[in-house]
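Re: beginner question about structure tokens

> Can someone show what the tokenized structure looks like for a real chain? I only ever see the sequence side.

Sure, here's an example I had lying around. Input first:
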Amino acid sequence: MNLVDLSGKSILVGVSGSIAAYKACELVRLFVKSGADVKVVMSDGATKFVSPLTFEALTRNKVLTSSSEDWASNLNHIDYPQKSDAFVIAPATANTINKIAKGIADSILTQCALAYQKDLIIAPAANTVMLHNHYTEGSLKMLAVNDIEIVKPVTKTLACGDEGDGALAKPLDIYYTTLKSILKSDFWSDRRVVVTGGGTREAIDSVRFIGNHSSGKMANALSLALYLRGADVCLITTKRDESMPSDLYTLEVDDAQDMYEYTVDAIRVAKKGKMSRASMNSSDAMHIIQKKPYLFMAAAVADYRVKFPQDGKLKKSQIGEEWNLELVENLDILKSLNKDGIISIGFKAEKDKKIALESAKSMLESKEIDGVCLNILGADNNFGSDLNKITCITKKSQKEIPLKDKLSVSFDILDFAQELE
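And the corresponding structure tokens:
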């Protein structure tokens, strides 16, 4: 799980009267662990499921309720929302959703929603029939039109016993959606980006393969950083991480050929461009901007594959005491890709410090790319480590990113990559 440093940020969590209210405790805990100043506002119905004392123990802040509101301090429905960097209501009942859509503020929670001036985030939790009632569906559409982020509920057996969608999304997904509202940038927002990661597995037979020690963690961290900046990410990896955001588009592959074919297709789609709306000019005409896509080739592609992989499992009795495998060279994916119209950045891992820098610089020429992220492996940043240090290299410049967690390194890589456009 990748947690972002939210030191100096203030987050308001709204809790409405749903059985899923207990899951808000986990969401609050994630924000607190990230270093944010977290405050909670609860409807009267929510206090029937979870005590305000629980949230006060987690946040070390007074919970705002209809009975605790205090105009002699900032514990009120104006100061709490207006002094927050993000406001997420999780769970949001059908009642709360319909009231907010209509601008009704007859509870402390909906009063906070009406007083909040930034983009609100709502995570619905309701019985399937109530959620799909045409009034609720209309309210959700109205909220979406007004730039309120809806974290889609999931399908499961609900507390009432019904099977269907309406269960609160995973706290981690709500956490990431909230972070995106704080961290998204104009440069990366809606920009299409392809990231490859993990080590390819070249089949020997149906159960054995040739591989490498790549964990895929750097590509996952980079994809998450891009997601939080607002990019439209396609992650192509051999190492899927279930703790990543559920709506981050991920394609799983095994070998180099799969990696190549999926990457070619993803770049083709990325080059079509995703249009984003800019501000209106004086004549109210709409400007359409096509942002240049990016490719981050962080995958560790095997240099060779088995010439004749076998179906089924080869028995030891068939092989004998020695086994000589015939290998053939794999396609150099990064070199072979058509990189016209896309900014491309390769990743290189080296053990030998003496040749690492020159090897990375020659990679710029040989593979015709815009930048290289060089990782000189060591005790602290070996394969599978949660830490990394990177040297970012272009034909004209060089930037050192010191040893730190891979998500923090990823944000620094994005700053470097932004300068390449």
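Each token stands for a local structural state, so reading them left to right follows the chain. The radius of gyration is 25 Å.
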